[in-house]
Design goal:
The protein is an alpha+beta fold and 151 residues long. It has three helices and seven strands.
C-alpha cells in the first residue's frame, strides 16, 4: 500500500487541517478492519440519522455509548459467564468490541435504545443560526461603512 505524506498541506494552508486529518485517517486506516459487529447507518429525516448495531447476546449493562468531540464510540464487554459451560458448537459471537464513527460538525447524539438484539443510536445535525445561509439586502445607497471609508 502506498503511503502519502500530507505535511505539505499543513504548511501551505490555514484552517484546513481537519481535511488533511480526514484524508490521512482514511488513507492510513487498516485495510483489515473488523466488520464485527454488523451495523446499518440510515437517514431518517433531512437532518436526522440512525446507527443500528447488531448486539445479540449483550445486555444493556454490557454496552457503552460515548460521544467525544466528533467521535462516537460504541463498546461492549460481556461478563465471562461461560466458564462453567461446555459448548459443542459456539456460533453466537459475544466477544468484546469497540466501534468508532467519526461525526461531522454539529452532529450530536440524541438518544440510544436497546431492543431485540439491536442497539439504535439516534443522531441529529443542528447547524447554528450563525452558520446558516442568510439573504443580504441589496440597496442603491452606499452603506454607513462605505461613507466612512470615503471620508
Amino acid at each position: 500500500m502506498r503511503a502519502y505524506d500530507f505535511s505539505p498541506l499543513y504548511r501551505a494552508t490555514v484552517g484546513f487541517d481537519r481535511v488533511a486529518d480526514l484524508m490521512d485517517r482514511v488513507l492510513t486506516s487498516d485495510v483489515n478492519h473488523s466488520t464485527y459487529p454488523p451495523y446499518n447507518i440510515e437517514k431518517t429525516d433531512e437532518d436526522a440519522y440512525r446507527i443500528s448495531v447488531a448486539v445479540a447476546g449483550f445486555a444493556e449493562a454490557d454496552l457503552k455509548v460515548e460521544q467525544r468531540e466528533n467521535a462516537l464510540i460504541i463498546a461492549a464487554k460481556k461478563a465471562d459467564e461461560d466458564k462453567d459451560r461446555s459448548y459443542l458448537h459456539r456460533g453466537i459471537a459475544t466477544r468484546a468490541f469497540e466501534k468508532r464513527f467519526h461525526l461531522a460538525d454539529h452532529v450530536r447524539v440524541t438518544g440510544a435504545s436497546h431492543a431485540d438484539g439491536m442497539l439504535h443510536i439516534d443522531l441529529v445535525r443542528e447547524v447554528p443560526e450563525a452558520l446558516k445561509p442568510r439573504t443580504i439586502e441589496i440597496s442603491s445607497q452606499p452603506t454607513v461603512e462605505a461613507k466612512a471609508i470615503e471620508a
